[in-house]
What we know:
Blueprint: H1 6-20, E1 27-29, E2 32-34, E3 40-45, E4 50-56, H2 59-72, H3 74-79, H4 81-98, H5 100-111, H6 115-136, E5 143-144, E6 150-158, E7 161-165, H7 171-184, E8 188-192, H8 199-210, E9 218-220, H9 225-234, E10 238-244, H10 247-259, E11 264-267, E12 273-276, H11 282-294, E13 306-310, H12 314-325, H13 346-361, E14 365-366, E15 386-389, E16 406-412, H14 415-422, E17 430-434, H15 438-447, E18 452-455, E19 474-475, H16 483-486, E20 488-496
Parallel strand pairs: 7-8, 7-10, 8-9, 10-11, 12-13, 12-17, 13-16, 15-16, 17-18
Antiparallel strand pairs: 1-2, 3-4, 5-6, 6-20, 11-19, 14-15
Helix pairs in contact: 1-5, 2-9, 4-6, 4-8, 5-6, 6-7, 11-12
Amino acid sequence: MTDSPSLGLSATAAAILSEALPEGLGGYAAGQHLAGRGAEVEARYPATGELLTTWRDIGAEGTAAAVDAAAAALRPWQEAGPFGRAEALRRLAALIRESAGQLARLESATAGKPLRDSRVEALRAADFFDYYAGWADKITGQTLPVPGPWLTYTRRVPYGVVGLLTPWNAPLFTAAWNSAAALACGNTVVLKPSEFTPATTIVLARLAEQAGLPPGTLSVASGLGETVGQALVADPRVRKVAFIGSVATGRTVATTAASRGVPALLELGGKSANIVFDDADVDAASDGVLAAIFAGAGQSCVAGSRLLVHADLHEELVAEVVRKAALLRVGDPLDPEVEIGPVGNARQYEHVCGLVEQAVGEGATRVSRHGERHGLSDGGYWVEPTVLDHVTTEHTVARTEVFGPVLAVSTFADEADAIRQANDTEFGLAGAVWTRSVERAHRIADEVRAGTFWINSYKTIHVAAPFGGFGDSGWGRSSGPDVLGEYTQAKAVWVPTAPYPAPFPSLRDS
Ligand code: NAD
């Protein structure tokens, strides 16, 4: 691992940013950089906390310009037809793949995500466009039997302009994950990236234009949530909203959309349980526990942040998790060997540290130790992989999304107790069970209330499978074939196939 002084790291990150976007950060629509005049926003390198650049919120005026561009692109995008859209989305996928190295460096420089993760996410972003390019020319209606002499069929019609709001933890991944399906269905999209991490979203919109999507089809409105986010959701031309972020903001966004009669797809947070029985393969389960909570420094909506372990395996499993956690390579996100980077921003850092302190104050035991560390700057948002043992359902950390590298460990007595504890949460995004019993594995998968569940594994997701949450974790699904129904509405067309009877007796023979 490279042991670099902090000044060098920030300078590298700043150079990556200015090389990728020489005009600076802001909005982007129809080939134009949208410079803001609103509040000043800072971009900091999470590994050092040092300032990379400042830029200005584009405000309601800039947001309206992004929506103008997306509204103007609706006709050419719909005229491209299903096959034209499929071709353009495939070209976009190819351009993302070609640019994956640059996109990954930019993501790591601005979001603090380790390069090895950013690279995978950039390639996944390309996969999303390929996958939905495959669907674009297969979105069909139905011919419906109805009583009487009618040919009745349906067509799937796009909503129009979709407003898509994304979080800071996986900016490119979430932008591509949701916009690919919306675009394939014939909608145009205005992306509102997190104010902490707009850079890769802007590059994505530029690549979309290079790929031949009509200018404005994928536009970007950058700025704060209360200004740009609200202006986007309130714009009367936005006919569908997709939101990825926290529960509190999701409710505000959905309320604003609903007040205009506009539906909102919500992908929110989680407090997912990783359940380990005493017959589990301890080596595989401990690897799985680490992957579930420490990958991405725990800043993943599906993070397995609650470890529920059978009382008889508790001591052995926790010891193994703690031992392995100390081996993880924590360090500069731009170092290709680093496995765990910093927390993404100062606000989140305070939130994570506050919850760890509170957990200890409420009676949890901090059992993790620090491993060997290289070049971690004091100003960076560093939280070591943290294991909190003896957590109970009364502890705040058992109920609150930490969204950081913090594992809360509790024990259970039997299967019923494990299911009860797993479901003792308002969230319902994901979960897993580790056991050698096939019967028990399926029983648990059936009983745990979660949108995604793994058996003897954790974290794998794919655009081909539905993804979304129960309860506070969200509303609707944002991948797989079902999502085509999220971004289109059915239109029924009725055609008489025999002379149509007069609607009123007085009109007969008239
Ligand atoms: P956040 O709710 O603070 O922000 C999300 C987006 O909403 C940002 O673009 C933000 O600027 C915008 N926003 C904030 N206030 C707004 C307002 N009043 N009106 C309109 N827009 C507003 O979330 P975050 O901190 O960026 O992200 C972390 C959260 O995202 C976690 O809860 C995590 O679990 C969740 N997440 C969910 C998924 C998923 O697919 N379920 C994926 C990634 C992250």
